[in-house]
Design goal:
75 residues; alpha+beta; 25% strand
């Protein structure tokens, strides 16, 4: 899942080396924390959050059907 998130975001940003995805697992959920260069935050979020919503939709759809819910946190 980390590779999927990185591959999507890499094509959107100007500083692909600054992309960092950290994973936090809890009992019923897995949270992916996406951090990008401060200049690229607007590009990842998009106008009215449309790009962020699209990225989340792809990540949620790629869930392999485990018992845990997936969340994507963009920082």
């Amino acid at each position: 899942m980390k590779a999927l998130i990185k591959s999507i975001v890499t094509s959107l940003v100007d500083h692909p080396d600054d992309i960092d995805v950290k994973v936090t697992e809890e009992d019923s959920k897995v949270i992916y924390h996406l951090t990008v260069h401060p200049d690229d935050v607007g590009k990842v979020i998009g106008k009215n959050g449309r790009i962020a919503k699209a990225i989340r939709t792809v990540v949620y759809a790629a869930n392999t059907g485990g018992n845990k819910r997936i969340f994507l946190d963009i920082m």
